[in-house]
Structure formats: structure tokens, C-alpha cells
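User: Sequence recovery, please. Input:
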């Protein structure tokens, strides 16, 4: 429709959402009429370098585990009068749209790195290692690391090419594993399948090649989404002594 409108000489506008970053939009403007000035020498108008478009900004940040909020891009003011939230606004008027708005939200030192939510029939757990956790792992050189990847291969992973994204991520993880580690891969859906029968095996060239073949053929073909059984399989096979 856009191309047809251009061929007919009409003004046309096409707005598209960027597929890679969903918050960016691209607008194409076509078939604009010529300007009304007959000669550039006949005008005394000055070229406008900065368009007079400004922006108002208001943001609410929950106070839970937040120690401070600041901005390196704009002057801001923070309303501390609200009970549960900080209210952030610009401290100056007529802020131009010439750069991104950056907010630096600093968390309290005692914030929890584990989040657990329990609902009827569902459990969600999210764990983010702290800097101290990572440092402890680096210092503990006598421990052999075990990596177990649990991959959802249920039918819903076919939507929006989620299985394709999982495939790319797993190939990247595989290439990043050190050769002295141990690993295994568990796919699950209505049932679960392990690449190796043992809880983990050493990352040799042969075992890495088997994993890469599995990832290249990864499909969303295992039915439903039953994650409990692969977790039970892991629980029954504790890590070997000297491995984490």
C-alpha cells in the first residue's frame, strides 16, 4: 500500500517496529510536496539547528531494596514523600530530545539475590550469583565444575522461534565451557531425555561433538511442559565428591 501510494503521487507514511529491539520504531515518509519558496536567494530565514521539541519525564521506582537514584544524563529531582515509591522528574523545564535519559538505580547491599514466588500449581525461582559468589568459585581451584543444562523442548517453544533462540544460546554455552569440566543436557516436555546416562561426563572432544549434534537438531517436539521430573532425576543423583 505504501509503494502504491508513492506511485500514484500521494503522501505516504510507513511506521515499522524494529524486530531486534522492540522499543525502536522506524518511519518512512514519502512523496512530500515541494516547498513554497521559489528561490533560496529570496529568503532571509535562518536555518533552524535545534528543533524546539521538549519532553516531560516522570518515573516511579519502588523503594524496596533501593538505596539511591541518580542520573548522569539529566538534572532530576526526587520526591521522597511517597510511602512506597520514589517519584523522579526533571528539575528543569524545556528539556530537549537530544539524548537518552539514564537513571542509575543503586540497590542496597543487603538485597536478596534469590526470588521465589509460589502460586496454585506453579512455582517460580530466580537466582542471580553475587560478585562474592563468583569470586569464591574462581578461588576454589581444586573443585571441578559440573554444568547441567535443562532445556524446555515442549510444543510452546515453537512460538516466536523460542527453540531457535535456545539452540543458539546452547551452542554459545557449549563453546564457552572449559575442557576440564563435566556437563550434561536434559531436554524436557511431557517426558525428559538426558544426553548422557551419568549425571555428568567430562567435556571431551567426542562428548562436545555429541552435544553440538544434539543442539543443531533441537526441536520443540516433546509435548507439554513438565519440569518436575527432570529436577527429580537430578535430585536423585547428587554431584560427585569434589565437584560443584
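Assistant: Recovered sequence (244 residues):
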Amino acid at each position: 500500500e505504501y509503494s502504491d501510494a508513492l506511485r500514484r503521487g500521494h503522501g505516504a507514511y510507513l511506521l515499522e517496529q524494529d524486530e531486534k529491539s522492540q522499543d525502536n520504531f522506524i518511519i518512512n515518509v514519502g512523496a512530500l510536496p515541494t516547498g513554497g519558496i521559489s528561490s533560496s536567494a529570496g529568503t532571509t530565514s535562518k536555518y533552524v539547528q535545534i528543533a524546539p521539541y521538549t519532553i516531560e519525564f516522570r518515573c516511579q521506582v519502588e523503594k524496596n531494596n533501593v538505596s539511591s537514584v541518580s542520573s548522569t544524563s539529566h538534572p532530576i529531582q526526587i520526591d521522597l514523600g511517597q510511602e512506597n515509591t520514589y517519584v523522579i522528574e526533571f528539575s528543569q523545564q524545556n528539556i530537549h530530545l537530544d539524548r537518552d535519559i539514564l537513571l542509575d538505580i543503586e540497590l542496597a547491599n543487603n538485597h536478596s539475590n534469590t526470588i521465589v514466588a509460589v502460586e496454585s500449581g506453579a512455582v517460580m525461582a530466580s537466582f542471580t550469583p553475587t560478585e562474592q559468589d563468583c569470586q569464591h568459585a574462581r578461588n576454589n581451584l581444586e573443585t571441578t565444575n559440573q554444568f547441567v543444562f535443562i532445556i524446555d523442548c515442549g510444543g510452546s517453544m515453537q512460538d516466536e522461534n523460542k527453540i531457535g533462540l535456545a539452540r543458539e544460546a546452547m551452542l554459545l554455552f557449549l563453546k564457552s565451557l572449559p575442557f576440564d569440566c563435566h556437563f550434561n543436557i536434559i531436554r524436557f516436555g511431557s517426558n525428559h531425555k538426558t544426553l548422557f546416562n551419568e549425571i555428568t561426563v567430562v567435556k571431551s572432544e567426542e562428548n562436545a561433538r555429541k552435544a553440538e549434534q544434539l543442539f543443531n537438531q533441537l526441536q520443540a517436539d516433546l509435548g507439554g511442559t513438565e519440569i518436575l521430573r527432570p529436577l527429580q532425576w537430578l535430585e536423585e543423583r547428587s554431584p560427585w565428591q569434589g565437584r560443584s
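Residues 58-107 form one domain.
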